[in-house]
Amino acid sequence: MAQILGLGNPLLDISVEVENLELLEKYGLKMGNAILAGPEHQALYAEVVSKFGSSVQYIAGGATQNSIRVAQWVSGESSGYTGYVGAIGSDEFGTTLTKSAQSEGVTTLYQVSSEKPTGTCAVLVYQQERSLVANLAASETLQVSHLDTDAVKAAIESARVIYCAGFPLTHPGGAASVEKLGKISSENGKIFATNLSAPFIVQVSVFFFQRRFDNMFPYCFPEWAAFYWRCLLTIHKDSTICSAALRDIKVVDKTGASRESVIRLGRGCRITPPNKHSSFSYEHMNIVFNDKGFLFLEYPLTP
After folding, report:
1. Nearest CA among 96, 63, 69 for reference residue 164
2. Residues 6 or more apart whose Cβ sits within 8 Å of residue 54
3. Helix or strand run (H / E) with residue 195
4. What is the DSSP letter of 47?
5. Helix axes 210-220, 199-207, angle to 10 degrees
6. Pairing of β 129-135 and β 120-126
7. pLDDT in tens, the chain (303 residues)
């Protein structure tokens, strides 16, 4: 059974190398950028498939699923060391996504939705640079009740580590699922790891879904439950500003846990939080938990 379980927004990466910028200019895209698809981008995916045919690569993607795929590879096991929970559509892209993830040994535990198509991410590569356009679609239909299905319950029970990126917090079912997994992890002595994933997640949370962060973070960082929005919005190399914010944080501990944690948050800003056993540095939006030699890094390849 899975030792590491992830929950996130599964996307089928539709990746192709383009010879010029014509397609990007048509859809108003920029190299080195990652965006969420708007109405003006909806035709892009079908055009890539029809125009580039057999040269298109279909890859199981989404930030958390990418991490789980890497964890499966690192484990050295042919299959079953990792599992992944998310929502896909009942369509051809969903079938392709499932086959891709399973071919790399990941145990897929998808909720299949008839409401929306499978989430996709167009990956246009030009001269070793890329532009990403993500259409979340069915990935936003995940319901917390899916965690109560027999297969998912068994995976949760067997997992030693449960990992969720920040992206599911943008939709209600994802946020409720992340909170539930945090609670289960706390009650059963599992490592619960998360990742803020992208600056817009934190920036938007302050105005639209701060409560979702408030409900999740005590399970990750009981020593400074509310640090994220005061600290991460302060993108300064001078750590004194962040340190001042930390001193004002009200501690909210839902877990009573004493697990040591290390948080890396980037760009050379290193801060010592109000717990002598913990530290973090602001380097690349990566959360690192170090417990009994366990080290896990997440790199968000797609939104």
Report:
1. 63
2. none
3. strand 191-195
4. H
5. 120
6. antiparallel
7. 899 999 999 999 999 999 999 999 999 998 888 788 999 999 999 999 999 999 999 999 998 999 999 999 989 999 999 999 999 999 999 999 999 999 999 999 999 999 899 999 999 999 988 898 989 999 999 999 999 999 999 999 999 999 988 888 888 999 999 989 988 988 898 888 877 666 556 555 555 566 666 666 656 554 443 444 444 444 333 444 344 433 333 333 445 555 544 444 443 333 333 343 333 333 333 333 333 222 233 333 333
CA-nearest of 209, 196, 187 to 263 is: 196
- What number of CA atoms fall less than 13 Å from residue 20's CA on the CB side? 3
Residue in this structure with the two tokens 């069915």, named with its chain if needed: 138
Tokens 């001042």 sit at which residue? Answer: 244
User: Do residues 220 and 190 lie in contact, with contact meaning Cβ atoms separated by under 8 Å?
Assistant: no
Domains detected in the chain: 1-198 (3.40.1190.20), 201-284 (no CATH)
Q: What is the largest CA-CA distance in the chain?
A: 57
Rounded distance between C-alpha atoms, residue 54 and residue 269, angstroms: 45
Taking CA atoms, 184 is separated from 118, 209, 261, 273, in Å, by 28, 22, 18, 25
d(C-alpha 303, C-alpha 301), whole Å: 7
